[in-house]
Amino acid sequence: MRQGYTPRGADIIHSEAWRRMSKGQPMKKVVAFPNREPARTSGAPEDRLDSWKEIATYLHRGTRTVQRWEREEGLPIHRLQHDKLGSVYAFKAELEAWWANRGDSLPSEAAQAETGPSVGVLPFADLSQERDQGYFCEGVAEEIINALNRLRHLHVASRTSAFRFKDQAADIIEIGRKLRVRTLLEGSVRKAGDRLRIAVRLTNAENGYQLWSETYDRQMTDIFAIQEEIARHVAEALKVTLSPAEKDALGKPATSDIQAYDYYLLGRSYYYRFAPREVEFAKQLFAQAIERDPRYAMAHAGLADCWSFLYLYGGRREAAREQADRVSMQAIDLDPESAQAHASRALALSLNERDVEAKESFETAIRLDPELFEAYYFYARHCFAHGEQEKAVRLYEHAMRVRPEDYQATLLLAQSYDDLGRYEDAIAARRRGIELAEQHLRLKPDDARACYMASN
């Protein structure tokens, strides 16, 4: 049983080995070619981008940003003979190879300079006397991320990308550069009985200046109001105009039951450890949250993820798959606008081999939250398992843009490149994936999954 999985549950769809063995095919041997330059594509029209606009759109950045990347960061751009500014073109494979090697070290001003305000929410520090509220502190930060994600004109760094800086000695400017955001929200929580103190500050990640700060001394029952106020103040500080629907959404907490909320947060903390025993604990906690509040959609989504995990790594019991299907459907019914609920539903549908419905749910999750790594990643794995390699490549590439530090999408992308005959692209992706896995193992040396994937 492998541990160290990505949120939404490990090898959710099938691995290369599983896919080949299930079809009675021999295992593919990976050949280590000598060092070679990254491949240029054949020049086919679908592989080539023929203007700054097309290049910028492909990289999800503004035109001036990609022009600056060419000047300062070596972005591989080609020009026609007359060398006019507009007569440029680029190959997708070269851009992907460049992004894999440089995406995590680009200057902060390039990331969102032309796409509006952006923020990363770091895990809140636990200042409680017993230092036993880490799950609650992370949960508060995650709920603020979820609230800010509802604002259409605000880019929010993903939870996993931001939370990897927990307990790391990095300054604000460095973190902002790596997350590719302009501002960072930090906080601390002190819980004592039914009293709660939350201190937050919003900092400009480009110069280190503080933009806003506040301290909330309240009753525990005020936690939902505090999270709403923080989200509103961040939006105001970043001059994000809220639509009436967005204002209304911020004022609707996922649950009004404090105990259910606490069960849910503790359940997520166990689930993210991705080991069978911990997932069993998480399942029980999500069930308790639902018992307290039967309309708690996120608790249903968490419970569905647990059942999916236990189906895949607990003997593939049909009862577990049926539970994942049933509970994920309840999550959607309770909150049809939840990206996480749709991602959980998509996974359950995929396990039930309901291909069309699974794809629809994946697409909905991405539409609701374009920064939801898990939706791209597991959608890519679903496509890979169904032989849709071109689509799997596009989804893996997008997952890599959302979370540049993730080794899994990069290594699995190499498998899809192999299947498409893009062997030099596969070599480049595999090298980058191994580098990322090694970086990950320095922080989590007992992660068996990272060891397994990097060695295969």
Task: Outline the fold blueprint.
Blueprint: H1 16-22, E1 48-49, H2 52-59, H3 63-73, E2 78-79, E3 88-91, H4 92-102, H5 108-112, E4 118-121, E5 125-126, H6 134-149, E6 155-156, H7 159-163, H8 172-179, E7 183-192, E8 195-204, E9 210-219, H9 223-237, H10 244-250, H11 258-271, H12 276-292, H13 297-313, H14 318-334, H15 339-351, H16 355-368, H17 373-385, H18 389-402, H19 407-419, H20 423-443, H21 448-455
Parallel strand pairs: 4-6, 4-7, 5-7
Antiparallel strand pairs: 1-3, 2-3, 7-8, 8-9
Helix pairs in contact: 2-3, 4-20, 6-9, 6-11, 11-12, 11-13, 12-13, 13-14, 13-15, 14-15, 15-16, 15-17, 16-17, 17-18, 18-19, 19-20, 20-21
Notes on the protein architecture:
The longest helix is centred in the last third of the chain and has 21 residues, at 423-443. Helix content is 56%, strand content 10%. A hairpin with a 5-residue loop joins strand 8 and strand 9. The chain has four domains: 1-5 and 10-35 and 374-456, Serine Threonine Protein Phosphatase 5, Tetratricopeptide repeat (Alpha Horseshoe); 45-105, Arc Repressor Mutant, subunit A; 118-250, TolB, N-terminal domain (Rossmann fold), CATH 3.40.50; 267-369, Tetratricopeptide repeat domain (Serine Threonine Protein Phosphatase 5, Tetratricopeptide repeat). The chain has helices spanning 16-22, 52-59, 63-73, 92-102, 108-112, 134-149, 159-163, 172-179, 223-237, 244-250, 258-271, 276-292, 297-313, 318-334, 339-351, 355-368, 373-385, 389-402, 407-419, 423-443, 448-455, and strands at 48-49, 78-79, 88-91, 118-121, 125-126, 155-156, 183-192, 195-204, 210-219. The protein is built from 21 helices and nine strands. It has 456 residues and is α/β, with parallel strands linked by helices. The protein starts with 15 loop residues before the first helix and ends with a helix.
